[in-house]
TrEMBL record:
It comes from Chitinophaga agrisoli. The chain crosses the membrane at residues 37-60, 67-91, 120-140. Keywords: Membrane, Transmembrane, Transmembrane helix. This is Uncharacterized protein.
Length: 141
């Protein structure tokens, strides 16, 4: 359930234009979060990567709880991508400043994914809501 909640929160940060069109008073809250957006992105990127690692480590769930495993893997992938997009400037500054090839590759990846950030954010909200529902429907003992 925590993955679903965090994915929804990250998605809300990732699609501010969509939120502002629905609730104009949310602008102040989004402006308060903006200075921390890079750090939030890094944390969620690693959280999403950890979720993918968890999914791989529990590949046996494919036989006992395939819907939950696919949900966990999909949610973690969306979370890692959104985290990467939001934290890219800080990731670039902190981790890739010494390696020019890695920096160029990261820039190419971001250029491909950045135009889809809004759609990815909406997908994140949907997948996050499903993750919360699935955590109640498909418990793993």
């Amino acid at each position: 359930m925590i993955y679903g909640i965090t994915l929804i929160l990250l998605s809300i940060i990732a699609v501010p234009s969509l939120i502002l069109s629905k609730k104009p008073n949310a602008k102040e809250l989004l402006e308060k979060v903006e200075p921390y957006q890079g750090w939030i992105g890094i944390v969620f990127c690693f959280w999403g990567i950890w979720g993918l690692v968890t999914a791989v480590l529990h590949i046996g769930w494919l036989t006992s709880a395939p819907i939950w495993w696919i949900t966990l893997a999909a949610g973690s992938l969306v979370e890692a991508c959104l985290g990467f997009l939001l934290g890219f400037p800080l990731i670039n500054k902190l981790f890739l400043s010494g390696n020019e090839k890695a920096r160029e590759k990261a820039v190419r990846i971001r250029e491909k994914v950045a135009p889809k950030q809004g759609k990815l954010g909406i997908l994140g909200i949907i997948v996050g809501a499903w993750m919360i529902a699935a955590s109640f429907l498909f418990t793993i003992a």
